[in-house]
Design brief:
Elements: H1 16-24, H2 26-33, E1 49-55, H3 63-77, E2 81-87, H4 90-102, E3 110-112, H5 116-121, H6 129-135, E4 149-150, E5 153-154, E6 157-158, E7 160-169, H7 170-175, H8 185-196, H9 215-226, E8 232-233, E9 236-237, H10 242-255, H11 264-272, E10 278-282, H12 285-292, E11 301-304, E12 311-315, E13 318-320, H13 327-340, H14 343-353, E14 356-357, H15 365-370, H16 373-382, E15 384-386, H17 392-396, H18 398-414, H19 419-433
Helix pairs in contact: 3-13, 3-14, 9-10, 9-18, 18-19
Length: 436
């Protein structure tokens, strides 16, 4: 599974000029990727209809299987209608869909993670309020659905939510004289320090992203939210607030104990191989460890709730209807979303990626018995805070904001600059991008 793609993390590094160039070239892109001309008569000569469904998750273990099961069930119930689910790289996905939405010629089924905010900003996602009210689905849905509401309009239905957990190698903790995983920031710092003094050569006490990558935003934000702060608090930038500075200091201290030059995939592999003692990462990593960790190492790898006051909720895959398709296609896409919302398919997210389904009560009891970690996931998500601050401007400008934060974190990891100085400069940069 690629880095954060379960939670939809994609970095957008393009300015207004680049966006204009991209839109000029939309006709070329849409010739290859369009879902139709937006009319009801855009089926084949035999009356068949093909719904285009691009997704960055098509070939991902877990996600891909769950989505294919939904596609197959939909097609079995809709004679003459097929779904063309095809992969788009994680790096290209957001830019491609924004371009298609903005040009008014989108694919039929819109999937999103944190791309959602960029898609919503185009104004080309169909409000689902009436359909959701008629179906009664909101009565069955978890509260994190609110993360897909813009100006009181539900613009997507969330399929599942994710969170971050503390992963640790219990043998290394025992060798360091640590009886239990840490439960507070100070205990976390002490545990990593103890590990640094006890692990053998070739083993790192902590795992984190240590290269320029979108993971850096999520990793440092988990510390900031976890320790009671946010990027924006009470309508003001709080990048230099004492709580933020303290959280970033701890993040920096631990990240300097991590192997250099690695993204999430790199340090996860080292954790799986027994070459990293502890890290904080998404709950989707549990199934990854099952797949890649050697048989003599996997039993040592355990999970615990994050050692912070707050945990972070990451809204996972969501499904939307684009405004620029025919009413016939909108109805078909809504049928697709309703099938994805059925308990059988909602429960698949717990089985496929150890996620918390959007629909309440969808996790099969036998899955909890065979995967006790799901109880930790449910406990953590149940008390989690949103990853993003309550700011429309932050979401609308997230691509540029994320880039500036990533650059600042890399400066902290690669220089001796004072943390507060780097954060002061970052706050100035963010203030120049947008009001909080």
């Amino acid at each position: 599974m690629n880095d954060r793609s379960s939670a939809g993390r994609v970095t957008v590094r393009w300015g207004h000029a680049q966006r204009a160039v991209a839109l000029v070239g939309a006709a070329v892109l849409l010739a290859a990727c369009s879902g139709g001309d937006g009319t009801a008569e855009d089926g084949g000569e035999d009356g068949s209809i093909v719904l285009d469904f691009p997704t960055w998750q098509a070939n991902e273990p877990g996600h891909g299987e769950a989505l294919r099961a939904i596609v197959e069930e939909f097609e079995s119930r809709h004679e003459g209608v097929t779904v063309n689910m095809y992969p788009v790289s994680n790096e290209d996905f957001q830019n491609q869909i924004v371009t298609q939405l903005s040009a008014g010629d989108p694919p039929d089924i819109i999937a999103s993670g944190n791309h959602f905010y960029a898609f919503a900003e185009t104004g080309q996602l169909e409000p689902l309020n009436d359909r959701l009210e008629e179906s009664g689905l909101l009565d069955e849905w978890e509260d994190f659905q609110q993360e897909r509401v813009v100006d009181d309009e539900h613009l997507a239905l969330t399929m599942h939510a994710l969170t971050r957990l503390l992963y640790y190698n219990e043998d290394y903790l025992a060798a360091a004289g640590v009886d239990a995983p840490p439960t507070s920031p100070s205990e976390l710092a002490d545990t990593v320090e103890a590990l640094a003094g006890s692990v053998e050569e070739g083993v790192s006490p902590w795992g984190a992203t240590t290269t320029t990558h979108s993971n850096l935003f999520g990793e440092v934000t988990a510390f900031i939210v976890g320790m009671g702060s946010q990027w924006i608090t009470d309508g003001e930038w709080s990048v230099t607030a004492p709580e933020t500075v303290e959280a970033v200091e701890l993040y920096r201290e631990l990240a300097r104990q991590a192997p250099p030059g690695l993204d999430g995939g790199g340090y996860r592999q080292l954790l799986a191989d027994g070459r990293i003692a502890m890290s904080q990462d998404g709950n989707w990593v549990i199934s990854t460890l099952d797949e890649v960790s050697p048989a003599d190492v996997r039993p040592q790898l355990q999970v615990a709730p994050p050692p912070f006051e707050n945990s972070v909720a990451l809204v996972g895959t969501s499904l939307s209807i684009p405004a620029g398709i025919s009413e016939e296609r909108k109805d078909l896409v809504w049928d697709f979303i309703q099938i994805a919302a059925e308990p059988e398919f909602q429960g698949m997210w717990a089985g496929a990626i150890d996620a918390a389904p959007g629909r309440t009560g969808s996790v099969p009891p036998e899955r909890v018995q065979e995967r006790p970690e799901l109880e930790v996931v449910a406990q953590t998500i149940g008390s989690a805070q949103p990853e993003f601050p309550d700011s429309a401007n932050f979401r609308a400008n997230f691509g540029e904001i994320e880039t500036r934060i990533i650059d600042a974190m890399m400066r902290l990891l690669t220089t001796d600059a004072e943390t507060v100085d780097v954060l002061t400069e970052l706050e100035s940069e963010l203030s120049s991008i947008t009001e909080p």
